Amino acid sequence: MTLYIDPPTWPGHGRMWSHLVSDVSFEELHGFAASIGAPPRAFERDHYDIPSDRYADAVAGGAVEVGSKELLRRLTEAGLRRPKGRPAS
Predict the structure, then answer these.
(1) Please, what is the end-to-end C-alpha distance for the chain in angstroms?
(2) At 83, is the pLDDT very low, low, confident or very high (cuts 50, 70, 90)?
(3) Which of 50, 51, 59, 69 is the most exposed place for a label (fewest CB within 10 A)?
(4) Which residues are bridge partners to 18 per DSSP?
(5) Which candidate, 81, 66, 67, places its Cα nearest to that of 29?
(6) What is the DSSP code string of the chain?
(7) Could you report the per-residue pLDDT of 5-25, keeping only the tens digit for each?
């Protein structure tokens, strides 16, 4: 099981955010997110939005810290990327 998280550099709603992804399956991603207390509403198409104050929880839970470009590369190579405007399969 490998989950990846990028640094909390994405602004929104007065906070900074990270993206949490799996390079295996959405089932793995949902299970891990639940284990660190991420609510289902934090899931957006192919990733979970994780606020900066929960970043350490994700890393402590086993998420691997990677840069945003590396995260996107792994997600795309796994065939799990769901860009805006493309329906979920």
Answers:
(1) 22
(2) confident
(3) 69
(4) 50
(5) 81
(6) --EEE--S-EEETTEEEEEEEESS-HHHHHHHHHHTT--GGGEETTEEEEEGGGHHHHHHTTPEE--HHHHHHHHHHTT----TTS---
(7) 999 999 999 999 999 999 999
